[in-house]
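Structure (tokenized):
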């Protein structure tokens, strides 16, 4: 999914910031190393962001389009997911809440005059843990 988003964003001149859980940072590690490598996966968001490595295509797109990767912890992801439910009644997977977590924790902030978009999905979630 990342490669597709990066390709379309590049076509329209949109800057992409990848967000990953601290316990599943395949893109972050690959960008730092300059090569695809295996990472340990231990995150609440592993059901959707639990790849032990990025693809060569994803790394190539990230490098070619100057994508940066932001890492957030599981607690911030849980808070962001809960916020989406409580404020907007959106049921999303933990991996999807990672983008909002990066904004909420100020791990990633827009540049002056940038508008922000966060890709949201609820395919890999169990909404039962959102209701008290």
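Design, position by position:
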């Amino acid at each position: 999914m990342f490669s597709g988003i990066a390709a379309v964003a590049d076509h329209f001149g949109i800057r992409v910031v990848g967000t990953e859980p601290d316990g599943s940072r395949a893109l972050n590690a690959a960008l730092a190393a300059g090569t695809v490598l295996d990472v340990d996966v231990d995150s609440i968001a592993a059901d959707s962001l639990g790849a032990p490595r990025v693809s060569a295509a994803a790394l190539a797109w990230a490098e070619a389009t100057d994508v940066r990767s932001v890492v957030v912890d599981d607690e911030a992801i849980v808070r962001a997911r809960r916020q989406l439910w409580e404020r907007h009644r959106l049921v999303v997977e933990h991996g999807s809440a990672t983008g909002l977590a990066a904004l909420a924790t100020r791990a990633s902030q827009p540049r002056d005059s940038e508008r922000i978009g966060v890709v949201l999905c609820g395919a890999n979630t169990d909404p039962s843990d959102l209701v008290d």
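Reviewer-requested clarification: The chain has one domain: 2-130. Residues 48 and 95 are 6 Å apart (CA to CA).
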